[in-house]
Design goal:
Blueprint (H helix, E strand, L loop, with lengths): L2 E6 L8 E5 L4 E4 L21 H9 L4
Antiparallel strand pairs: 1-2, 2-3
């Protein structure tokens, strides 16, 4: 899979980030919340990212 960085909240590797793939999908890097109370299947996960990151990606016409 080829991954391209689209938008991030900072310039280091451990910040919330949105990536595009060559599969036509998006990958999201962010915190893994544990206090959500949801039942998530073992093969899936939740990722928490700031709304400002989504706004930035849309504002910059990245998604």
């Amino acid at each position: 899979m080829k991954v391209t960085k689209l938008a991030s909240t900072c310039d280091v590797k451990d910040c919330p980030t949105i990536y595009a793939t060559d599969r036509g999908t998006l990958l999201f890097q962010g915190e893994t919340p544990t206090d959500h109370g949801l039942q998530i299947p073992p093969h899936e996960t939740l990722v928490e990212i700031p709304m400002e990151l989504i706004r930035k990606a849309i504002r910059d016409n990245l998604i």
